[in-house]
User: Fold these one by one.
Assistant:
Number 1:
Amino acid sequence: MGVVVLVRHGRTAANADGVLAGWTPGVRLDGRGEEQAERVGLRLAPTPLAAVVSSPLERCRQTAEAILAAQQGSAADHTEDDLGECRYGAWTGRPLKDLAREPLWREVQERPSTVRFPDHAHFEAESITQMAERAVRAVTRWDEQVVARHGPGAVWAAVSHGDVIKALLSWCLGSPLDAFQRIVVDPGSVSIVRLAPRQPFVLRVNDTGGDPVDLTALSAALAAEAPGGGAADAAVGGGAGSDAAVGGGAGTD
């Protein structure tokens, strides 16, 4: 069981202008986004990351590079297509204010599990359910690989996109996909989950602060826990935090 730091890429001009970038090539971080990526890297610097796994899109690669730079080359660098943005098809590149006038918009808001985006000649289309399923497969697969190589309690980062991370958090919370729009994941934010054998634990969501994210105590406690111990279960009553306990109620710093 590893600890996964879910990082949304920093802001882009498309984000600032209210445009759905999707898989449009060449969408890079703006000045604010570069600052956010650098800040995330510095915040995560106290935690040795076993790996940084990123969506292949430029804005995520830039954010991953900032995290890797702060790790001073100690983390393995990987790219994973299944952490890429949702494939919005004909919605790609269009202003959100225009999309909000289409009937499909209400479905995306209220019944996203039923939505498949319209086809387009140049941009692939998929359903939100397909996006969620591939993201979950990718994170669980990479977590297994990281733990197999580095041991229980290994910490790694997955750099992805807003809707993808919202879908992952929804899965970790055991929440229906139709409720995933209730989760907010801002540019440059950090969310943290732990994939325990019986169920995931959500340790942090949409953290955009400036404090260091030091997971070394939690990582060490998980590494020292005997197989089959309490780390697979929630700490009834909330636990005492990561300095003293490794159950699901443990804190993250």
Number 2:
Amino acid sequence: MDRRAHEIDHRIVGDDMQCVEITLDPQETVIAEAGSLMMMDDGVQMQTIFGDGNGQEQSFMGKLWGAGKRVLTGESLFMTAYTNQSTGRRTAWFAAPYPGKILPMDLRDHGQRLICQKDSFLCAAKGVSVGIEFQRKLGTGLFGGEGFIMQKLEGDGQVYIHAGGTVVERQLAPGEVLKVDTGCLVAMTYGIDYDIQFVGGIKNTLFGGEGLFFVTLRGPGHVWLQSLPFSRLADTIVAAAPRAGGRRREEGSILGGLGGLLDGDN
């Protein structure tokens, strides 16, 4: 069965700070979030597109609905399409925004639909629709924290998502339950039932350090998890930043503030 999406080739480069090289045949297109481009060959043309990026003919209201769903996930109304307008093969490169891994996935291997964390999508073949996964459960909608708004990737093309830190995959059997920190969930297949649950117990709430909620996943299906959510990385950077007045935090130094005096910081 022929694909409706463009058939793009790729090469993952790097280890902890990865980028992906997308090779485009003439007139092939890759779509990406704004700001993810690293470089591109001469002959590749950029175009801003309005909507969910699937490249199918739509009415204005259809495009507006697709764009509106993206806004709900915290993304821009627009996406960027990169099309090879030359007569030979050309490349476009896209970079991960923080340390982790880029995961190439063929949607045909996952029922032509994946649910992923709202900030994990990097790029995809033209023909893939990038929208929002509506969750009808009240608990998920109100209390999901960083994990309650999920993106839905639909189509029969290649997609590339980014996971922070190390990637762990789990195959859940029918009825098997996995409880995950909301930020550590990267992606899952469509058949998985998920909801947000409150972490009970006053000690857990006040002193647990893992947030007030976690996501409960019930199989069957496949799950991709990340060891370093961006929110956790950002919190660590903020905690290590210099305090007001330009004084830095001493990291385990036995000299403490005296170390700052010796190296001229105070």
